[in-house]
Write a structure and sequence with these properties.
single chain, about 270 residues, alpha+beta, Hypothetical protein af1432, 2 domains, 4-stranded mixed β-sheet, 13 helices, about 10% strand, elongated
């Protein structure tokens, strides 16, 4: 039996997505002239590199076809099931926004809630989608600066914080996600985009070293990761004046425990 990597199902998914995003509507990336089809194809490539099963790769290529298809050429779940099977349809629906008439804040809140119910395959599709979308955002920011965020219906801070929460939700749900390290690396890049704003608006909590416990409950004010200093595996003791604990997802400093010498010297 000959094992095929570039399967007929994947080829058909590429053609279907190309018709939906390019042939029927000439869809482009938000605020850009780049054809939209580059995004789902990138998602498919990421999933292939992560050695995802065929149906997961196909779902990644098709993940925006229901959500973004034009009214006169609407893609329905039934169409995807007929062509690619019920498992692919379920995966596509799991990462499809359910009600686009809601406000940006409401839609993103719903999306976060859905991640908590995702299967591992859905998490993998969502992971590739996040990596493709927001690696592109970081690249655009490095070239155009804050102007990059003018094409969105939300502020720079809202966009960055939401995506950090999405990444945190994904990696918290599935620690063995093959894209885990890529997501954490992206989270640190996203946090860096808003470093000045975040440091000022969300300062680390400062406590005395005597009140510090490795099993105390802490929470990242940016991405909502919750755990303990011990579980963060990110305790820095290099300083002679304090130890600090950083978020394992976005690397935001959460807690600073000052040594007694700091108190004595300040008197």
């Amino acid at each position: 039996m000959i094992f095929s990597i570039y399967t007929d199902k994947i080829r058909r998914a590429i053609k279907f997505a190309s018709k939906t995003h390019n042939q029927y509507q000439q869809q482009t990336r938000k605020g850009k002239v780049i054809p939209y089809i580059t995004h789902p194809l990138t998602v498919g490539i990421i999933l292939s590199l992560a050695k995802a099963p065929e149906d997961v790769i196909v779902a990644g290529i098709l993940h925006d076809t229901i959500e973004d298809s034009p009214k006169d050429k609407k893609t329905t779940p039934e169409m995807i099931t007929e062509r690619f099977g019920e498992d692919v349809t379920k995966l596509v629906l799991s990462v499809t926004e359910q009600n686009r008439s809601l406000s940006w804040e409401e839609r993103k809140k719903d999306a976060l809630a859905h991640i908590k119910k995702f299967s591992n395959d859905s998490l993998l599709v969502k992971s590739a989608d996040v990596l493709a979308n927001y690696s592109e955002l970081v690249d655009d920011y490095n070239r155009y600066g804050d102007e990059t965020f003018s094409r969105f219906n939300a502020s720079k801070e809202e966009i960055i914080i939401h995506q950090l929460k999405v990444i945190s939700a994904i990696v918290t749900r599935w620690a063995d996600n093959p894209l885990y390290r890529d997501l954490v690396f992206l989270a640190d890049k996203l946090r860096t985009l808003g470093l000045n704003e975040f440091m000022e608006k969300y300062p680390a909590e400062i406590i005395d070293i005597g009140d510090f416990k490795r099993d105390m409950k802490i929470k990242c004010p940016i991405c909502d990761w919750e755990g303990t200093p011990e579980s963060s595996d990110n305790i820095n003791t290099d300083s002679s004046v304090a130890l600090d604990v950083r978020c394992p997802i976005c690397d935001k400093m959460i807690l600073v425990a000052e040594y007694e010498i700091v108190k004595s010297d300040s008197k």
